Description:
Elements: H1 7-15, H2 23-43, H3 55-90, H4 97-138, H5 145-169, H6 175-189, H7 192-207
Helix pairs in contact: 2-3, 2-4, 2-5, 3-4, 4-5, 4-6, 4-7, 5-6, 5-7
Amino acid sequence: MASNETIQGFLDGLASSAPTPGGGGAAAISGAMGAALLSMVCNLTIGKKKYVEVEEELKGILVQSEALRAKLTGMIADDVEAFDAVMAAYGLPKETDEQKTARAAQIQEALKVATDVPLACCRACREVVDLAQPVADKGNLNVISDAGVAVLSAYAGLRSAALNVYVNAKGLDDRDFAKSRLDELETLLGDAGALNESIYDVVKTKVN
């Protein structure tokens, strides 16, 4: 499982000529790092007398950030499986009309999955971006810079995964399916950029 690799092993895989892991896995890791950093800020805020008034709220956020970290880490393998399925479909025989028809249908089904997998990554990354707001506002000032790194990582994951949604949706014959995914993607991206910058500015003000 890619999620159980060492950092060095994962980076070596990214750098190699092998098609996976690739950008999809990198996007998931970016989101997972963002979630992990939010968890760290929460863990270093909870139990501190100075932050007792926000402790319960941050405990709730910690549960969410840890769930998102696990989900995004698992998406590394999801991305590999989706890519492999697309490649396997393209590799099917196409010598007869029947084979050509079956191959085309399999490619389309694989592309649908390959569109939905990065879209799920986008959803999770957007959740991390949203969670970064209260953490940046209320987290322990001694580690508040990590809330800034968290939102930047999650936003990078969101935009990176979006590229894979675009490229796979483009190849779909079912344009209604493609449009529904692209419409959701645009909603997820929506004000994410502005929110990313706003949270970054909050953190920057606190550390300056």
